[in-house]
Every structure is written in C-alpha cells, then in structure tokens.
Amino acid sequence: MVRPVSVLNVLSALIVLFALCMLLPLGVSFLYDDAAGGAYSQAVLITLVSGAGLWGATRFGRAELQPRDGLLLVALVWTVLPAFATLPLLLYLPELSFTDAYFETVAALTTTGATVLSGLDRLPPSINFWRCELQWLAGMGIIVLAVAILPLLGIGGSQIMRAETPGPMRDPRLAPRIAETAKGLWLVYAGLTLACILVFKAVGMGWFDAVVHSFTTLSLGGFSAHDASFAYFKSPAIEASAIVFMILGGINFGTHFLAFRKLSFAPYRSDPETRAYLVLLAASVFGIAYFLLATHVYPSYWTALRHSAFNVVSIATTTGFFGADFSQWPIFAPVWMLFLCCFATCSGSAGGGIKMIRAELMVRQALREIMSIIHPRAYLPVKVAGQRVENHIIFAVLAFMLIWGGSVIAMTMLLTASGLDVVSAFSAVIVCLCNTGPGLNQVGPGATYASLNDFQTWVCTVAMLVGRLELFTLFIVITPAFWRK
Amino acid sequence: MKIVILGAGQVGSSVAESLASEANDITVVDIDGARLRNLQDRVNVRTVSGSAAHPSVLAEANIEDCDLMIAVTQSDETNLVACKLAQQLFNVPTRIVRLRATDYLANEKVLGPDGFDVDLAICPEQVLTDYIVKLIEFPEALQVLEFAHGKVSLVAVRAFQGGPLVGHPLKDLKKDIPNVDARIAAIFRGDAPVLPDGDTVVQAGDEVFCLAASKDIRQVMHELRRMDKPVRRVMIAGGGNIGLRLARALERDYSIKVIEYDKRRCEILSTRLDRALVLQGDVTDEKLLEAENVSDMDLFVAVTNDDENNIMSCLLAKRMGARRVVSLINRRSYVDLLHAGEIDIAISPAQATIGTLLAHVRRGHITQVHSLRRGLAEALEAVVHGDRESSRCVGRRIEEIDLPKGAAIAAIVRGDEVVMAHHDTLVQAEDHVIVFVTDKKQLPKVEKLFEVSVGFV
Questions:
Q1: Which domains are seen in chain B, by residue range?
Q2: Pair A210, A197: CB distance under 8 Å
Q3: Does A396 fall in a domain?
Q4: Partner residue opposite A381 with nearest CB, options B270, B279, B288
Q5: Could you tell me the pTM of the whole model?
C-alpha cells in the first residue's frame, strides 16, 4: 500500500534542500553583479516556503518508506523539482512560457542538454550557472545525493536508490551500508569533476567556463554557456580533454569507485561493459573519421578525426556537446551516432539510453536461442563476466526493450501527427529518451527546441523523464494496481 | 607401519584395502557405522565410528601411536581440523589430507606449519583429471606417467601390427631411432609379464611399457603402432567433480560436450564452464548420444560415479562410432572383465590416486609410486643417499645391485640429465632411480635396497 503523505513529507525535505542549492547561483549572481539576483532571492524564498509548508502539513505522516513508496517518491522528485527549478528562469525571463521553462529544467535535471534558450552568451552568468549546476546535481542521481548527505531522511532503503540507478542488474551496494555506497559514488563523481575543472582551466578556459562545462561534462549533460557549444572555444586541446572526461563519465561509477579504492585498473578490466564500451567508441570514432574523409566533408584525415572524435564521443556518451554541425554530415554518420547514444554508455554511469549491458544481454540471449535450436538438451546460461544472469533479468531486459521500442514508435507518431517532419521527430524522440540533446534537422545542433509547439515540447519533456528513470519507475506509478489498497 | 585413515569413502576404503595387504596396522575412522562394518567384513582393519574432527574420536583411534594419518573424509574442513588436531594434540609425524577446494592451496600459509600443518595435500579428482588429460595428449597411450618432475615419462602402449618394432627384437629399437635413448621397461603378454631383454620379440597385442625422456616419448610410441589423429572432440559423460575438472582443463583446446543427468548440477556446470556445452540427459540415452553426434567423437570419457552407467554408456558410444572410449571403473572384477575388450581404457580411480599415498607409506627414500596395470605392477622413483658403505646402491654398477627377480632399474635421473640404465651404469649418491616392479611380492626387498644403513647420518 502506498502512503502518499509519508512520501510528500520526504519530498518536502528534499524541496527545502533544493532551495539551498539555489543559493549557489545567487552567490554567483552577486559575484558577477548580474541582473538575475532578484529572481534568485524570490525563487529561494518561494521554494523554501513551499517546502516548509508542505513539511508542516505532512508532519503527522512521517514513517519509514517502503519500496513502493520509494517508487512514488522517485517519480515525484523527478517531476516536482524541475517545476521549482523553473522559478529563477521564469522570474528573470518573463516572456518564457512555463512549458518551455519546464522543458529546459527537465532537460537540465535529466542531463539531456536539449535547450529552448538561445542567446546563451548574453544571459547572466548566474542563469547559465544554474542550468549547469542542475545537470551536475542530477548527474549521479538526486536520490543518491540525498541518501549520501541526509541519512536521517528516512529513505534508507536501497530499493529507492535502485529506482533511479540506471542498469538492469541494480545492486549498487559497494560498501556494507547504503549511505556509504552513495557517499563513495558522489566522492568519485565530485573528484572527477574537480579534476575536470583544473584540466579545462589549464588548457585555456576561464574559471567560469571551466566550472560550468565541467559540471555538464561529467554529468554527461551537454548544456553550455555558449550557443556554439564547444565550437565556441575553437581549441583542439579543450575538445581533447572534454573527450577524456566524457568517456570517464560514461563508465560505471561503481567501477571507478572500486578502481580508486584499490588504486588499480583491474576493476575496469573485469567489468563486462567497459571494454565493449571503449572498443565501440574507438571503432566508431575512427570509422566515422574515415567516412567523413571519403565523402569529402573534411579535407584532411586529422581534421576529420578531430571532429569525428569530439562529436561521436559527445553524442555516444549522451552528453550532447557539439564541435561541428554534424547534422550537415552525410546521413549515415549522424544516424550511426544516434544509434550509439542508445547503447554505448555503461549501467551505473551518468549516461542515458538502453545501456551497454542490456545490449550485451540481448545479443547473448539471441545467440542462446539459436544454440538451443541446434542443441535442444543443452544448458546455455547467459553469462556476464563469468557470472550467470538469471532468467528473470533477461525477461526484464526484454520487457524493457519492448517498452522502449514501443515508446519510440508512439512518441514519433505523436510528433509527426502534430506536424513535425519524420527525421526531426524520430531523432528528437531518440535523443530525448537517451538524454542526449541535439537531434537532427529542426532540433539539430545548429537549432534549439524552441521551434517546437507546446504539444511537441511536452512530448519531448515526457520522453526525457521516461528515459532518465528507465521507463518502469514512471509507468509503474501510473498503473491502477500501484494505487490499489 | 601404524596408519590411521579418516573417512571410509571410496578413496578411504580402497587405500585401506591396498595398504592392509602390505602388513600395516590400519585403523579406519568414519561417522557412518554401517559403512565401517561393511569395510571390516572385507578387510583386516580396526574401525572407530565417530566424527573425525573430534579429539575424543581421534584418541579412541589411538592416533598418538600412529606413524601416518590419512584424512580422506567427504569434507575438506573435517580433514583440515583433524590434521591440525593430529599435529597439536597427538604429535602424528606424517599427515596427508585430501582437499577438493583449490582455494586452500592458493596461500601456502593455510597449509603451512602456522596454519593447518599439512604434510601432503592430495586431490584424487585432480590426479584422475591429469591422468585423463595425459591420455588425450597422447591418444595412443594406455597410461602416461611422469617421473622426476616431468623429465622422464613412462607410457604404456598396446603394440599394433604396423609399428616398425612389432615383430622385431627389442635391440632393433636402437637401430630404428638411434638418436633417442629409450628403454622398454616391461612387456605384458596377456596377463603375464615378460621380462624384456634385447632379443625379446614384440608381438601385436602386447602391452609395452617404455621409458624415455619426455620429449622423445612420441617417437618411441611411433615404433610400436601407427599414430592416431590428434583428439579434437571429446564427450564427457557425467558432470561430477571429475567431469567438471576435466571439462575445465580441456575446454580451451578441445571441443567438449558434457552430459549430466541432474538439472541443478547442469546449472552449476554451465556456470563454471565457459566453452564446453552442457547437456542434460541420461548418459545411456542413445537418442541423446545420437543427436549430439557421438559418432564423430574422438574420445568418449565416462566419469559418473556409477560403474554400470559408465560401462554401458561407453559400450553404447563405442557401438555408435566413438573412436575411443574411456571409462572409470571402481570394481576390480569389472575391470578385468572388460579391459582390452570394447572399452579401450578402463581407469580404476583408487589405483590411479593411491600412488601418491603409497610413496609416503613406503620406507626408504621413495618419492613417487605409480600403480600400473590396476595395481599388478608398480613403478617407483627413489632417491639414493649415502656412500658405498652405507648404501646398497651407491657406487655400484647396476649389474652389481642385488635386485630381486621381477624388479628392474629402468632409468636414472641425475640433476637435469636422464640416463637410461644399462648393466654397467654406475649409480651415484643423490641419483633418482626409477625402478619397475612387475612382481609386487618383491616390493619389501626393493624398498630395503634404498634404505641407508643405521650408521649413516
């Protein structure tokens, strides 16, 4: 049985916490003395008051959350917090509609990086900082963060953390206690971000750019403080360092955690996904570079390789930066990149999409079916890293793929029915479900999502949320069985 | 010698049986009284029933008086605890422990003096697995044994019409392969041993034991029969401890199919094995064998723990076209019934594993004992110490050594060098001497030869 009051009580605490997160851009606003200071003061106040009010109203229902409550909490956190996050934007940009603002903050929190805003370079630094901070906060998971820093919140159960951790075999327990695990993950994440900031600064960015771009690089978010994204810097060194950190962000943070703790590369080697992930990325980068040279897009292999490396890694890791307008490339290249963003990243990473492990499981399951026809009496377990994968996980992955494919078709239909051309519609659905960002044509790297009408914007917003929570969490909450007493 | 054996399972009882026949005082401890009564009916041993890991039970077995303890109960943990107790409470000088889990062998501290203090850890399943793996490496051989850390090999081969040496006297071997120093250690014709000399003529059907440096062994076998195609496809019937180990050892280099009846065991097998194909079914189910192309198998190995199943599945596989079939058979009467019949090689688990134990039971400086022809003969490796005064071997030519009839020195390993024994070869101190004994009654005399007289320190 779900207890909405208890859930709302925990949610209210998270809202208060979220208000505190707004103090950072407020500080930035003071530092740069920009025009958005007033908007932040009001936003902090409204959020604090709403959070506190909700807490007061639901105080009587405080209780330890059960797994089912956890699902509701995760669904609410991911839909309510973006609404509060829109406050500074709406207050500072009165002409922005709630639909667009909500799209923007959902794109931020789901680390999608699709934007409806243009003229980013002219926005106050605090607004850009807020967008990028949101991506960083959500990159490792909001609940994971809450578990890590607020152990007394009453959300101790690992099931709740699992509901937002990407991947089919969700046992994120690396330390004996769930809070320790969450802390470990966040330490690794924060440590890598710090390293990224220093590297970006060292290769030529200013401090502000280095910080906000590190936020969106490690979270595989893709927001930038510039309309031209990374093309703004015109620096191969910056692109190269971004590539390294994007690749790191696409690896399971549990694996990073183990590697840091043991100070060895062994965990990467024994991880079933990392190898396939790296091989696929490398093959695609070199392959597409060759393809671009062969189709005379770029005059030299080195230029082709530079643009291929940055853009392919950016899209495949579901980050969504761009260093060149890849939608102008011959169609095979961008389509291959869209394909990559569906499968490339590892489970437990900051990336979105179906995840490498599911793709591996699907391939092995298909091979198993073929083998079992040849040898009807054979025992053919699907194995990953020498461990047997239980059948129920395979079935869950199959169901996931089915719903995922169904969602792509349904949403593409909705977008085309509302008047979008099919390439834009299909690519928009894919990149939103995979939390990538730029698609093709109308939503390509040169354009923004502002050209979509309200209906289309909402479809994309839903796609991003559904994709981030890996379908089930949201779909479960809207089934009647979930609410039955 | 006073020996306490813990555990009266398959290994325990066959060890007891085999040692009891050599005039040792044996006490067997087991938790299962019925099993002990059964053993006592057959073999002249004393039995104590109770848990082998309890000090009181060990005391009841008079373990403090014994010279050797052999712990071969079902459980590794019981064996280890018993071993530690035997050392600490009862001062047993030599402790042999059967260990199945390889985890215990990973760190030497576990079995060292600060750990469980094990003198020798044996794993019968591993010994059997090595035995069968060797047969696959040398598909022509009936048995392959290694001495002196693998420098010297002894192979048993059945001579076939077509081998260059078949139908010729043994001295022709030197003419055929002049650069190889090999020695025919023994020949069995039917069941009777033939003591070979240069004029002995090898006949088709003889079981010939040849000794040579390991690198030359293929050439020597080639003298006795045409060589088979190398083995590529192996079917293993039975996925127990041996089946699993065998499949793991072979799956990298050969195409392996394992048949196992128990479904849960199948799941374990398929998890532990990477490439081998695990099939669920009865090993004597001819439909299954046919569907899985038993006729294309180069080797069919039956290693279930049921003799009848092993034999039947082997006969079936052979009839259906498997090139060679190998069966584990525990009962000696079955072995004699079948060997050299339709089943190409019958392996007796007890005999194959008992060698390592025997080396510790034997007196003198015997480092290795291999049981041949299912226990009818033995090959020993002994180190000779002392000098011409204190030893009966050192400083003497081989013809001067007073070997009983039915025993022969086949080779000597000196440092890294392998010397084939001739009548005038001089034995030096610290040589490893490989002795072939075809008449087991002569064993005590052979052992005495390698003892050093009391004055030697």
A1: 2-122 (3.40.50.720), 140-224 (3.30.70.1450), 233-347 (3.40.50.720), 352-449 (3.30.70.1450)
A2: yes
A3: no
A4: B270
A5: 0.78
CB contact under 8 A, B271 and A387: yes
Q: How far is A175 from chain B (nearest CA, A)?
A: 24
Largest Cα separation within chain B, whole Å, is: 69
Residues 6+ apart with CB under 8 A from B282: B259, B261, B288
Mean pLDDT of A191-204: 93
How does pLDDT run across A280-325, given as a tens digit for each residue?
999 999 999 999 999 988 888 899 999 999 999 999 999 988 888 8
Find which of B244, B270, B294 to mutate to test the A interface (most A CBs within 10 Å of its CB): B270
Residue entry with tokens 């991947």: A167
d(CA A19, CA A130): 12
Residue whose token pair is 């009467």: B333
- Rounded CA separation A457/A454 (Å): 5
What was the ipTM of the complex prediction?
Answer: 0.72
Please report whether residue A378 resides in a domain: no
Q: Which among B267, B271, B280 has CB closest to A377?
A: B280
What is the overall mean pLDDT for chain B?
Answer: 84
Read off the tokens for A328.
């102008």
How many contacts (CB atoms, under 8 Å) link A and B? Answer: 34
CB contact under 8 A, B279 and A388: no
Number of domains in chain A: 1
DSSP one-letter string for A253-275: HHHHHHHHHHTSSHHHHH-HHHH
Per the domain annotation, does A120 fall within a domain?
A: yes
**Secondary structure string (H, E, C) spanning A302-321:** HHHHHHHHHHHHHHHCCCCC
Nearest residue to B143 via CA among B374, B382, B412: B374
In a domain, A164, yes or no: yes
Nearest CA in chain A to B266: A379
Task: Fill in the amino acid letter for A290.
Answer: Y
B83: closest CA of chain A, how far (Å): 34
Cα-Cα end-to-end distance for chain A? 5
d(CA A137, CA A149): 13
Cβ-in-10-Å burial (0-12, 13-18, 19+) of B151 comes to middle
Task: Say whether B270 and A375 touch across the interface (CB within 8 A).
Answer: no
Cα–Cα distance, A348 to A263 (Å, whole number): 20
Which residues are registered as beta bridge partners of B327? B302, B346
Top-confidence residue, A246 or B219: A246
A374 CA: distance to closest CA in chain B (Å): 9
Asked if A375 lies within 8 A of B280 by C-beta distance, the reply is no
Task: Verify whether the Cβ–Cβ distance B288 to A377 is below 8 Å.
Answer: yes
pLDDT in tens, A349-399: 888 888 888 888 899 999 999 999 999 889 888 888 777 888 888 888 888
